[in-house]
Amino acid sequence: MRFMLIHYVPDAVAEQAEHSAEIEDALAAWVAQWTARGILLHGDRLRPAADATTVTVRGGEQLIADGPFAETKEQVAGYDVIDCADLDQAIVVAAGHPTARLGTIEVRRVAGAASRSPQSTR
């Protein structure tokens, strides 16, 4: 089963984390561990929410705005797509990610055919 790990961190933490060698090392170790096991399929950081552009279409009219959609003290800092046997395994993978110590990781199963892969038979 494929799951998406969505990383939420407070704004101040996001800025500090980008410049922390300790977090970089922990992240590199996490990526290496789960990639070697065939669990981590893809993931990346996202640019800060201030760099976002939002797109909305209402009544056929396209509305574009700079910045994040919601005013919040947290931001989505990154994501990972993982392939696990079940939710329990996905939780173990998420709990080991450095972001879990800095903010919150939402674990959400990918819906539909994209959630199944040849590796999902673990």
CATH architecture: 2-Layer Sandwich
* Overall pLDDT level: 87
Which bin fits the share of residues in helices?
25-40%
CATH top level assignment: Alpha Beta
Strand order of the largest sheet: 2-5-1-6
First-last Cα distance: 9 Å
According to CATH, the homologous superfamily is Dimeric alpha+beta barrel
Strand content: 35-45%
The H-and-E topology, N to C, reads as EHHEEEEHHE
Tell the overall outline.
globular
CATH fold title: Alpha-Beta Plaits
The radius of gyration over CA amounts to: 16 Å
Number of strands: 6
**Classification by helices and strands:** alpha+beta
Tally of DSSP helical segments: 4
Residue runs with pLDDT of under 50 for 5 or more positions: none
Largest sheet: 4 strands, antiparallel
Domain count: the total is 1
